[in-house]
Each structure stands twice: as structure tokens, then as C-alpha cells.
């Protein structure tokens, strides 16, 4: 598929500014061009670079990740989160006063199974065909090898441990997710390097993964520019709105006159949304990863283990383990002990890793910021100050996966056409 065929007649429509060149912003730019709009992308950093959230993503295109983080009874775990700074979900005491309103809404969103189910039903509309959508975008951008569609695996130590997650799997089944159970012998056959303590595998065939999220996002951003988008290396700071109509996006390099804009700035979208009349309770769920370069053993299928709450799979640069949630804000220094925990879990999952000579491997750490709203749903919709400004951020743990569909929806709103998916659950006005 060539750029000329994909974007014939590009640039003939209204001028839109896409704020952010991450996964959501790049997908939005591509789809806006496809709709015939003239596009300018505002992004201060290098798309897909180490500063970008998608760079360190776990890479899962988990179309079944419809269960929000907070489930009934989560409030009982808050004291443990506060007491254990190295647990799977940790709260930094210094940030707690600022995060408390978000945390209360977070707990309330999963108070009952019915609420969890409503969230899952909405998320499924964004994620159900995500692997196929990403495969199409990757092929169009010239990097088809970065998207693989061969399923994802959840590994459990026992049937009882799996039953402990019964609510989540019950909710998934109601949204249409199907899976296969691998008993111990089948799991050993499929995953010979996985520690023998894991005796049950839950395999989701429909899902996929990305082998290099940073390179993928960079390719999408490059594809958008090749298709006609202009890029301005600046940071958006606000908007000029007159009579309810957007006249310009303000940046630290001056104003950009335009007819519409999309806020796709990830965890840094909050001030821009407020400037557009739609303040939302956006928080950073700080996530860590570790990459073992030179690793010779690991999963055949991208794998999440229930006991460590982490994902492990092969990236182009080595074996990556990603996970952890730390509520500590955008500016606090990294706590690299959390990355070391991931490394220890990885060695526990694949014991043969520990037998490799230290000089044969290199271990690298990374920290990024997931843009999270307390109810587990992103914001996709018009701002209160102007229908010309579209909010498209807040995907939490499913930003990469949900970016392809979100880009289509945001572009449809920018073009003034009916969105292909009902957007009521994602309306920014739900936080008023």
C-alpha cells in the first residue's frame, strides 16, 4: 500500500493540530490525513524515543485487557500499598494528598461487578480488533514485522490461583473473549523454559504483540509526515478560542492557526484539557521495565504470570519484563529498585537465565508514565469550551493497544463525521 493511494486528496479539508506524536497522536494524524484533513503535529520530543510512554510499553496488543485495575474489595489493599513501596502497586506518601481524590474515584469505579462489567463492555469496543488494526497500520508504515498475531499467555501456579482471578475472566467472557486452557503437560511442552511452578496456562489466541513499540510509534509518526503532515517541534501550552470556535493552538514557539485540534499528549494532557474547559482527574501510573540483552532463554509466547503481575516477552532488543504501578506523579525521581524487582521475577520465571555468564548479558532499566483516569476508561470526545477541540488520552494500561481505534475515532470527530463507535462511555463530561 503506497502513501499516494492511501491519502489521495490529502490536505484539502480543514486544518487540524494533533498535540502529541505518541501511539494515539500518530494514529490520529494518519487517520485525519486519510479523512482529507490538513494536519500539523505538535511534539517536543522525538516520536518513539526513550522519553515517550510507548517506548517502554510491554508490547501487548491485548484485546482482552478490558478489566479495569480496581475490582470489588480493592479498598482493603490500600494500607498494603502505602506500607510496601516495592509492591506491585505502590503509593508514594509525598504524592498521596494530591492523588487521594483520584484514588477514591479509582476505588469507587470497581466497587461492584456490575460497574466493572460496564467498563469492560466499553473498553472492548476499542480493543476487540486491535491486533488486526495495528497489523494494517504497521504494513502501511513499512514495518509489518513489528506486529505479531499469535496469541498471549497467562500463567498460573495452580487452579486455585486462577480461580482467584475468576471475576476478571468471567467479565471477559461476557464481552466475547475466548481462551484455551493449557494443563501442566501442555504448558511444559509449549513453554519449556518457564519455571515448573506454573501448572496452568490460559492462552488468548485473538491477541497479539508488538516487537518494538518505540520503533513502531516512530514509524507511524514518520508515515504521517510522509503522507503530508507537518511537524512542529514545540510544546503546546493552550488554545485561543473565540466565540466557542478554536482559532489557534498556543505553543512555546508561538501560535499555530487552525480549525480544530486533538489533545493526545498522554500523561501530560491534563493542563491542556483544563485549558479547553474540560478538567479531568488524570494521573500518571508510573511503570518500569527491564530488558536483558543477550538472554538465551525466555517465553515462546508473550507471557504474564499471576504471581509477579508482570509481562515478559522478546523484543527486538532482548527479553523485556514490564509491569509495576507506582503512583508518584510526573516529576518524582525513579525508584530503580522497582526495575530490579522485575529482573528478579524474570530470573525466577526462567531459572536458566541465572546460569548465563554475567558478561554475556546486559540489563537495562526504564521508567515511563501511563496516562490513567480513575474509572479505567480514556477520554475521547469534544471539550467543553469548544467542539473543535477533541480529547483523546487517558488509556492507562491499554494505550498502545487502543491507539489504533482511538485514532480513527478522533479523526472522525475532527472531520465532523459520525464516530464508528459509541463514545458516551468515554465522554470527558463524565467528570464534571
TrEMBL record:
Gene3D superfamilies: D-Amino Acid Oxidase, subunit A, domain 2, FAD/NAD(P)-binding domain
Domain FAD dependent oxidoreductase: 15-413
UniProt keyword Lipoprotein present: no
Entry-linked InterPro entries: FAD-dep_OxRdtase, FAD/NAD-bd_sf
Record carries keyword Chaperone: no
Keywords: Oxidoreductase
This protein's name: FAD-dependent oxidoreductase
Taxonomic source organism: Variovorax beijingensis
Organism phylogeny: Bacteria, Pseudomonadati, Pseudomonadota, Betaproteobacteria, Burkholderiales
Amino acid at each position: 500500500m503506497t502513501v499516494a493511494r492511501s491519502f489521495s486528496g490529502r490536505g484539502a479539508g480543514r486544518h487540524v493540530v494533533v498535540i502529541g506524536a505518541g501511539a494515539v497522536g500518530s494514529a490520529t494524524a494518519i487517520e485525519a490525513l486519510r479523512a482529507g484533513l490538513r494536519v500539523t503535529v505538535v511534539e517536543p520530543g522525538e516520536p518513539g524515543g526513550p522519553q515517550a510512554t510507548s517506548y517502554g510499553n510491554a508490547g501487548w496488543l491485548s484485546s482482552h485487557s478490558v478489566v479495569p485495575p480496581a475490582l470489588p474489595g480493592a479498598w482493603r489493599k490500600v494500607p498494603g500499598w502505602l506500607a510496601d513501596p516495592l509492591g506491585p502497586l505502590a503509593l508514594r506518601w509525598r504524592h498521596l494528598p494530591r492523588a487521594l481524590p483520584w484514588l477514591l474515584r479509582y476505588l469507587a469505579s470497581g466497587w461492584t461487578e456490575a460497574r466493572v462489567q460496564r467498563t469492560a463492555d466499553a473498553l472492548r469496543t476499542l480493543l476487540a480488533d486491535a491486533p488486526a488494526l495495528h497489523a494494517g497500520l504497521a504494513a502501511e508504515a513499512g514495518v509489518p514485522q513489528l506486529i505479531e498475531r499469535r496469541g498471549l499467555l497467562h500463567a498460573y501456579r495452580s487452579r486455585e490461583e486462577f480461580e482467584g482471578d475468576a471475576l476478571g475472566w468471567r467479565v471477559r467472557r461476557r464481552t466475547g473473549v475466548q481462551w484455551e486452557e493449557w494443563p501442566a503437560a501442555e504448558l511444559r511442552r509449549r513453554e519449556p523454559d518457564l519455571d515448573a511452578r506454573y501448572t496452568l496456562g490460559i492462552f488468548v489466541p485473538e491477541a497479539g504483540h508488538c516487537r518494538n513499540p518505540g520503533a513502531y510509534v516512530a514509524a507511524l509518526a514518520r508515515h504521517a509526515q510522509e503522507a503530508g503532515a507537518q511537524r512542529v517541534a514545540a510544546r503546546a501550552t493552550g488554545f485561543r478560542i473565540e466565540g466557542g470556535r478554536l482559532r489557534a493552538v498556543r505553543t512555546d514557539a508561538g501560535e499555530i492557526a487552525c480549525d480544530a485540534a486533538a489533545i493526545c499528549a498522554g500523561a501530560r494532557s491534563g493542563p491542556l484539557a483544563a485549558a479547553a474547559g474540560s478538567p479531568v482527574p488524570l494521573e500518571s501510573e508510573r511503570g518500569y521495565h527491564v530488558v536483558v540483552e543477550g538472554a538465551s532463554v525466555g517465553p515462546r509466547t508473550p507471557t504474564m504470570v499471576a504471581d509477579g503481575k508482570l509481562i515478559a516477552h522478546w523484543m527486538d532488543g532482548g527479553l523485556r519484563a514490564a509491569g509495576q504501578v507506582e503512583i508518584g506523579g510526573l516529576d518524582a525521581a525513579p525508584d530503580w529498585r522497582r526495575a530490579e524487582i522485575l529482573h528478579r521475577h524474570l530470573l525466577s520465571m526462567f531459572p536458566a537465565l541465572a546460569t548465563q555468564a554475567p558478561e554475556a548479558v546486559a540489563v537495562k532499566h526504564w521508567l515511563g508514565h501511563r496516562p490513567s483516569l480513575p474509572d479505567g476508561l480514556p477520554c475521547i470526545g469534544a471539550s467543553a469550551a469548544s467542539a473543535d477541540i477533541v480529547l483523546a488520552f487517558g488509556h492507562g494500561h491499554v494505550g498502545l493497544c487502543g491507539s489504533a481505534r482511538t485514532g480513527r475515532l478522533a479523526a472522525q470527530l475532527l472531520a465532523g463525521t459520525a464516530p464508528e463507535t459509541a463514545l458516551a462511555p468515554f465522554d470527558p463530561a463524565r467528570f464534571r
